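We emphasize that the prediction below concerns an isolated chain of 29 residues; any contacts that depend on oligomerization or on bound cofactors are therefore not represented. The input was used exactly as deposited, without trimming of termini.
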Amino acid sequence: MTLALIIACILLVNFLMAGLFSLVALWAD
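Result of the prediction step, given as a C-alpha cell string:
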C-alpha cells in the first residue's frame, strides 16, 4: 500500500464517520 492510498482510506473513513455521526445527531434530536 502506498502512502497516498493509506491517506485516502483514512480520509474516506473520517468522512463516513462524520456523516454517520451527523445522521445519528439528527435522529436523536
